[in-house]
Write a structure and sequence with these properties.
This protein folds into 3 domains: 12-74; 79-137; 149-208, Multidrug-efflux Transporter Regulator, Chain: A, Domain 2 (Orthogonal Bundle). The protein has 209 residues and is an alpha+beta fold. The longest helix is centred in the first third of the chain and has 41 residues, at 38-78. Strands 1-5-2 form a 3-stranded antiparallel beta sheet. A 3-stranded antiparallel beta sheet has the order 6-8-7. The chain has helices at residues 12-31, 38-78, 86-90, 94-102, 139-148, 153-160, 164-173, 198-208; strands at 81-82, 106-109, 118-119, 124-125, 130-133, 150-151, 180-186, 192-197. The protein has 8 helices and 8 strands. It starts with 11 loop residues before the first helix and ends with a helix.
Length: 209
């Protein structure tokens, strides 16, 4: 037979906090003209736990906000950006930013431990990822990004601000071929799905200008 586990003994500091809290609670009972009974003791414990949880949540929120403020200052000083700001900073779409990362033009940086947002016993990290530009994006780099960025049919159509059907017609009229065919997949119309080079998609836009 397995022996029942023994309850964990509180630490010395926890016992000290409990003693002080008990004294304050007893004084509060007296101030309200209440007698400390088992039922009232249990009622106060429920309210006390809820109050402590609210206080803990408020302090955690404040700590996260303070770290975020310091992290923004750190990011500016280091010239790094969270992923959400990267497209605007580089003048690229989200898809192009992913390609830029794959090409090594944009690299992730490690956020100092003191600036991370960790929660829980196992320190789950909620800190947003930050990136820096490893290679200045000139015309040649941007052209390579456009050549290697692949879009779905709907993404390509949305980029041009046209319907998917119009995109199909214009792409075919331009004599362009999809960059990749996805085996075993079809779109909603039952046609094989393809991926299209961003550079080719932008070439269609240039025809309108």
């Amino acid at each position: 037979m397995r022996c029942p586990s023994q309850p964990r003994q509180p630490s010395a500091w926890a016992c000290d906090v409990a003693e002080r809290a008990a004294g304050v609670i007893v004084e509060a009972f007296d101030a309200h003209g209440q007698v400390l009974t088992g039922d009232r003791y249990g009622e106060v414990l429920v309210a006390l736990r809820a109050s402590l949880e609210r206080t803990l949540a408020a302090r955690q929120t404040l700590a996260v906000e303070e770290r975020a403020t310091v992290r923004v200052a750190w990011a500016r000083a280091q010239h790094v950006y969270p992923w959400s700001e990267l497209p605007a900073q580089l003048g690229l779409s989200v898809h192009e930013c992913r390609t830029a990362e794959e090409l090594g033009y944009v690299v992730a940086v490690e956020v100092p431990y003191a600036l991370r947002d960790t929660v829980g016993t196992f320190t789950r990290d909620y800190t947003p990822a930050y990136y820096r530009v490893a290679v200045p994006l000139g015309a040649a780099e941007r052209a390579e990004i456009a050549a290697k960025t692949l879009l779905t049919r709907n993404q390509a159509a949305a980029r041009l601000g046209i319907s998917a059907q119009t995109f199909d017609r214009r792409y075919k009229q331009a004599g362009l071929a999809p960059a990749v065919h996805l085996p075993g997949t079809t779109n909603h119309s039952g046609w094989p799905s393809h991926l299209y080079r961003l550079a080719d998609v932008e070439a269609l836009r240039a025809q309108d200008e």
